[in-house]
Amino acid sequence: QVQLVESGGGLVQPGDSLRLSCAASGRTFSTYIMGWFRQAPGKEREFVAAISHFGSSTRYADSVKGRFTISRDNAKNSLYLQMSSLTSEDTAVYYCAASRRAFMPEEGYEYDTWGQGTQVTVSS
After folding, report:
1. How many CA atoms lie within 13 Å of 124's alpha carbon, on the beta-carbon side?
2. In this structure, are strands 113-114 and 118-122 parallel, antiparallel, or unpaired?
3. For residue 102, what pLDDT is reported?
């Protein structure tokens, strides 16, 4: 089973950009659909983006479409989330997750493995 470790979070100002990374262990990274989720204080976890096994297809939440880009590098066992035009509404703990499904799910229960999360705070 793959293990996931996120990095790249931090404190940024509104309008800034930030790139999150998720490092996966094991030799089966390319067999997983990968996704990013986030959870803000007092709110439920929400879907952010997902990417297919080899990166040919992506899916985004409406709230981040056009501002965030999900990508992966299977040779490096890595997943990324490039975030731009950040606002305070993007403040949350961001989690990467791996799914064995054949499609790109938006529901958290469809994902089998989760990272520990990385905090992103957008504040002036």
Report:
1. 3
2. unpaired
3. 86
Provide the H-helix boundaries in 1-124: none
Helix (H, G, I), strand (E, B) or coil at 55: coil
The model's pLDDT over 45-68, given as tens digits with 9 standing for 90+, comes to 999 999 999 999 999 999 999 999
Q: Strands, E, within 40-91: which ranges?
A: 46-51, 58-60, 68-73, 78-83
Specify which residues 97 forms β-bridges with. 35, 114
Question: If DSSP codes are grouped into helix, strand and coil, which group holds residue 9?
Answer: coil
Total residues found in the chain within this entry: 124
pLDDT at residue 42 in the model: 94
Q: How far is it, in rounded angstroms, from Cα 84 to Cα 24?
A: 24
Please say whether the beta carbons of 26 and 3 come within 8 A: yes
